[in-house]
Amino acid sequence: MIIKFFFKILLALSVSVPILAQSNSAYTRKGIGDLVYSFSARRQGMGQLGVAVPDADFISTINPASWYIIKRTRAEFSLEYSGISASANSLNKFYSDANFNGVVFAFPISSLYGISGGFGIVPYSNVSYEVVENIEPPPSSVIGNYTLNLKGSGGISKIFVGTSYLLFGSFAAGASFDYYFGNINYTETIEFGRIGRLGSIFTKQYSPKGFGGTFGIISPDISGLRFGLSLNIISSLSTDTIAISASTLDTDTLSFGNVNMDIPYRLNAGLSYNLNKKFLFTLDYVFQPWSSYKLNGLTSNELVDLHKISTGFEFRPLQEPGSTFWEQIFFRLGFGFEKSQYYLNGENIQQVSVFGGFSIPLSIENTLDIGMQFATRGTTKSSLVKEDMVKLNIGLSLGEIWFIREEK
Question: Is residue 408 situated within a structural domain?
């Protein structure tokens, strides 16, 4: 079966971290990098969130309560392409990359009580940047010109397993048990311009791991209107650290040990309105107090509280006998505004995004999903960087019936 094949992929991914997306954004130097709100192409096309959207054909990782309506065993996975045009003063550079973005599964257990199970592996954050700066000391300096190269890579992923349940036959509740792990690497390289002068490399690596949970509810359908709420909590992550200094003459381990990384909770709230089972509207809000983020007990004055608002729209044609191929395509649009967690040189970095996407039916239960995001954030003022971003997410959503004995 198709889904069994992707289950094998999940087992392979659980022992490595190849799914961490690369963005090549200078702002990912701070904290744990850019946050990943949703891995799926469907959510990408509708503004990334959809906290109050239950769906029988797609799997949400932001609110496990939405699984209660799933009627088939489902699998989803996606690939993501990222391109960023970064501008600073008169300089401009384009970066791009493509990565596997995660795989999730969900299956019904009891339709009567809304019990479904789900599990998977998805990215939580990603770090990827490269900054090159040419330094020219005063003429009296004995050091001479040199180049400073800053690089970062990696991020944090999570493996989750959870379930949903109908409370009092109306409110849907859900919870997942999460395990977080990853590697974040920072490298600073100094290269001197004068012949014979030695360069040096300074490397830091953080390897956090620990547990957390995601809890959510979705209200019953009241004339097409629903309310949803979810809370993501992460325990203090045990973080192995190592710092190494190297040159052509020597390599020295400056420090190593274990510290705590405290990632703040994330609160998600949303509304959804379904009109005639064809038109879906969403409005969502995310809050995460990054001012309380700590590494080894220390906060950062370059991180502030995050606020994100997004709206989404989906047109979903009714599946009727005799429908043509074009009459079965889902269409999606979205808009988002974000006051990010980054605060640099007296500026709170803000982001504006436009989303779009569609789903192409492969069969009654299976779709090929496309999601797109066009965003701009930052500014060239105050010696900062303005980034124009495009992201393309391609995914498959597959559904099959399991645990039913075939007639002989």
Answer: no
Which residues lie closer than 8 Å to 158 by C-beta, 6 or more apart? 121, 122, 123, 124, 178, 179, 180, 181, 212
Phi, psi of 204, rounded to the nearest 5 degrees: -125, 140
Least confident among 131-135, 237-241, 261-265, 397-401? 131-135
What's the CATH number where 60 sits?
Answer: 2.40.160.60
In terms of residue numbers, what domain contains 223?
2-400
Residues 6+ apart with CB under 8 A from 148: 132, 133, 134, 135, 188, 189, 190
In this predicted model, what pLDDT tens digit does every residue of 63-102 receive, in sequence order?
999 999 998 899 998 888 888 888 877 677 787 788 878 8
Alpha carbons within 13 A on the beta-carbon side of 344: 21
| 253, 242 Cβ separation under 8 angstroms | yes
For residue 405, being part of any structural domain is answered with: no
- Residue (of 342, 335, 344, 281) closest to 310 by Cα position: 335
Q: What angle do CA 15, 21, 27 make, to 5 degrees?
A: 130
One-letter amino acid for residue 321 of the chain: P
Tell me how far apart the alpha carbons of residues 221 and 235 are, in angstroms, rounded to a whole number. Answer: 34
- In the chain, the number of structural domains is 1
pTM of the model: 0.86
Backbone dihedral angles phi then psi of residue 385, each to the nearest 5 degrees:
-120, 135
Burial of 189 (0-12, 13-18, 19+ CB in 10 A): middle
Residue 211, C-beta contacts closer than 8 angstroms, at least 6 positions apart = 177, 178, 179, 180, 234, 235
Q: Is 140 helix (H, G, I), strand (E, B) or coil?
A: coil
Residue 386 domain-assigned?
yes
* All residues at 6 or more sequence positions from 370 whose CB lies less than 8 Å from its CB, including other chains: 41, 45, 357, 358, 359, 360, 392, 393, 394
Distance CA 213, CA 141 (A): 54
Look at residue 406 and tell me if it is in a domain. Answer: no
What share of the chain in percent tops pLDDT 90?
A: 50
Query: How many angstroms separate the CA atoms of 368 and 78, rounded?
Result: 10
Q: What is the CA radius of gyration of the chain?
A: 23
